[in-house]
Each structure stands twice: as structure tokens, then as C-alpha cells.
Design brief:
The protein has 15 helices and eleven strands. By secondary structure, it is α/β, with parallel strands linked by helices.
Length: 362
Amino acid sequence: MKYVDEYRDGKLAGQFADAIKRTVTKPWTVMEVCGGQTHAIVRFGLDELLPSSLNLIHGPGCPVCVTPLELIDQAVEIASLENVIFCSFGDMLRVPGSRRDLFSVKASGGDVRILYSPLDALAIASENPRKEVVFFAVGFETTAPAHAMAVKQAWERGIRNFSILVSHVLVPPAMEAILASPHNRVQGFLAAGHVCTVMGYTEYEPLARKYKVPIVVTGFEPSDILQGLFMCVKQLEEGRTEVENQYARSVKREGNRKARETVREVFQVIPRKWRGIGEIPKSGLGLREKYAVMDAAKRFNLTSYEAEESPDCISGLILQGLKKPDECPAFGKKCTPEHPLGATMVSSEGACAAYYRYRGSR
């Protein structure tokens, strides 16, 4: 397929892998932030093409995986209500809450619908004025513009039976939390190309300067990732700490200005809890006061949830790059896609799901 196959060219990938081997002279640890990049690395065996001194670790780049347990429980309770049509992206349905998941609510008769766009949920609200329609607004900066547009249109069109359960998180604050941790071992980052397509990469520049780490905005295909790695290790070897853009075919430094304006109009920056990590200041989005009536957590009075993670799940350590999935004692045993202990095993971008799917229990 044009524009895909050309970035999966084996010969080109081999050339980048060879260039990396020639460049690396000492041990380096690089984190890919995005779960889509993690899946590509594991699926295509890109890490096995690299010198042993170059260690790739996986970051918190899966919005499904970092959605707090409390929010999953809120979603389950809302979806269980008789007068509610609960809409969500498909990969949220199997994410375990403290007792149930959305799939079990659907199986027991709840009106839970899988959609690809919040605007589809808005259409359902318009067609069902006597029902409360809730969309589970999960994602990084990538999906925020579509959710903002749905809220804005609902407000302008007077559709008051529509609300969103917000679980938006922001990537740069999470990267800073990792870098500021006393346990940090990240020396360079591959930044998520789709996030930067919307937001640009100016927010990464202060991080690169403050923590003296190279950050390379990178795409998702094998040659993208290997080229991004080459650019990153070249900076490390040369002692440079800059933000570079490998994904220039999609990303501009300033991002998509119109999308950013829409997000700023509807959302404000707030502290946000990340599943398995804890609260990170200024790392989330919440609805502005003008649109607070469309906040499902407030509409259904579900703001004071507390929940405990499974003691057998180490997804928090995996999301911080401190452990890899196959280092978890429960991996492939107590924890499988059919019976997951944590979100990293069921999300389409989860690191544990990638290891299980492409490497089994190896």
C-alpha cells in the first residue's frame, strides 16, 4: 500500500540499523513514548536489530493504559444506569475496573456502544432526546480536538442530553515526571508523532534544555522508528540535546493551530491521576466552567471514587520504563488478554499486549 509499504522497506530498515550500529560506542537507554511505536518495535523485531548496548524501554504512551481505575469504575456505574447510552472507543471495553469492565456491563444488557468518533455519539443524543448519552473521552492531545468539537457543537445546538466522561492526559508533563524521578534512566526520547501533529513540539524544547536529553519526534513505521533512533543516538554520541523532527511529513513545529485553538476554548489544564503512576501536576484536561454541565462525572455525581490496583500487576513500573512486560511474574500466567490484571494487557497500544501477541511467553 502506497505511503505504508515504502516505510516498511526491509532494505531501508537494514541501512538504518547498520548506521545505528556504526554510531553507538557506549550504552544508551532510549524510551519510545507512544504505545503504537512499542507495538511496531515488538511486531517487526526492531529491537533485535540493534546493538545490545542500546536499550529500548517503553513509556506511558497509551492513554487507555493510564486511565485511572477510578474513572473505569465511574464509567461502569454510568453505563449500568437504565436511561443511559454509553459510548466509547472499542479498546476501553475490556479494561478492568476494580470489580467489572464495560464489556460485562454490555453483556448484562447495558446500552454500551462502540464508536469511532464522539460526533457519532452526538448524533445518537440528537436522535434519542429522552436518553442520557455519555461518551468516554479518553486520549492524549491527539483525540482532544474531536472531543472539544463534539462538546462545542452540543452546546451550540442545544443538545443537553449529551455529556463526556473526561480522561484526557498530556504527554510533556508525563515525560517531565519520568525525567525528574530519582529512578529515571531515560537518556533520550522518541516522541509520539501523532501528538505532535496536533500540538507541535515547542513544549518539548524546554524539557530538552532543562534535563539535557535529546527528543526526536518520530513516526510509527519501521523505517520511521529506526531513523528516529539513529537521530537520537547520534545526538547522544555527539553530546547534543535538541528536539529534532523525524516525522516531518506530518508534523510542523507549531502543530495544527486551529485544532489547538478549539482545545483551548473547551478544555483547561488540570492535575490528572495516571493509572499505576499517580497524580502528575498540569498533566490533564478538564472542561472549562462554560461547558461544565457536560461533565458526566459531575452530572452523575461521581467525583469521589477511590479504588485499589491488583497487587500482582506491575503496569505502573512498565509505564515508567522501569520494567518490561516479560519481567512481570504474572505475565502470560495470571494476566492474559482474556483475564487481564491491568490495562497494558488489553489496550491495542499496551506494552504487555504487544509482548503477548508477538512474543507469547518468551
